[in-house]
Design brief:
CATH architecture of the largest domain: 3-Layer(aba) Sandwich
CATH class of the largest domain: Alpha Beta
Oligomer: single chain
Radius of gyration: 18 Å
Number of strands: 7
Largest sheet: 7 strands, parallel
Distance between the termini: 33 Å
Shape: globular
CATH superfamily of the largest domain: NAD(P)-binding Rossmann-like Domain
Strand order of the largest sheet: 3-2-1-4-5-6-7
Number of helices: 8
């Protein structure tokens, strides 16, 4: 198991990617601490992991609140003794507007959660990783910051800021044995995309399969990557299999975007 003896915090556990990631991390031997703003998903995933013989605990957390972030880290240390991994996947989308028409309140909220929330989590975990002489941080990015799509500007700007911060953190934390990488995801075949497929199909008077096939045709693999499959790429970056990888950007989108 590639995460044996690791203690991993996953910030932003929703019903899609975050839940899949937590379950797979536990199956790979990690002790998992999950953070999210609501209890529903946390309780379900915690029970699923326990039923499979894994170890996990959920903590209600709004990454904009310093006391919540500190509580997540305190829970990890109290329960498992240390922290060796962190995934930042907290989500906030200000709505599908052109950038200059994006409500300022929504744009600021996205920046507070995606950029400042990520930095807050990292500030709290770094002392524990530093004392252990190692750590792995994975920040979850979006293809929209690399391949502009109308209506995604507000969300993409926040993720782009996080992307830049990730490179600086990789430079600054490397001397302490802490790696910082990014997994940049595109379309994810999970609850959110399934809702989009239904909505779009109804609006256009076509089938959900028609909409799916249009999206899938954009990448060489001919499918929309699933939450489950994309979680595997994040686990790789977390693990010691990527011990010499830091400051990297791993595109996980079925080949829809191929950087030069």
């Amino acid at each position: 198991m590639i995460l044996s003896d690791e203690v991993v915090i996953i910030a932003g556990v929703g019903p899609g990617l975050g839940a899949r990631l937590a379950v797979r991390a536990a199956a790979e031997g990690a002790k998992v601490v999950m953070a999210a703003r609501s209890t529903g998903v946390l309780e379900r995933v915690e029970n699923d992991i326990a039923a499979a013989g894994g170890q996990a605990v959920g903590v209600v957390c709004d990454v904009r609140r310093a006391e919540d972030v500190a509580g997540v880290v305190r829970t990890a240390v109290d329960r498992f003794g240390t922290i060796t991994g962190l995934v930042n996947s907290a989500y906030s989308h200000p709505g599908f507007f052109d950038l200059l028409e994006t409500p300022d309140k929504g744009l600021r909220r996205s920046l507070e959660i995606i950029l400042h929330g990520t930095l807050a989590m990292i500030r709290e975990v770094v002392p524990h990783m530093r004392s252990g002489g190692r750590g792995s941080i994975v920040n979850v990015g979006t293809m929209a910051a690399r391949k502009p799509k109308r209506g995604e500007g507000g969300y993409a700007v926040a993720k782009a800021a996080m992307s830049c911060a990730s490179r600086y953190l990789a430079l600054e934390l490397g001397e302490h044995g802490i790696r910082v990488n990014q997994a940049v995801l595109g379309w994810l075949d999970g609850p959110g995309v399934r809702f989009y497929l239904r909505m779009t199909a109804e609006q256009r008077g076509v089938t959900e399969r028609d909409v799916y096939d249009e999206i899938a045709a954009r990448n060489p693999l001919g499918r929309i990557p699933t939450d489950e499959a994309c979680a595997g790429a994040i686990l790789f970056l977390l693990s010691r299999l990527a011990s010499e990888v830091t400051g990297a950007v791993l595109d996980v989108n079925g080949g829809e975007f191929m950087p030069t």
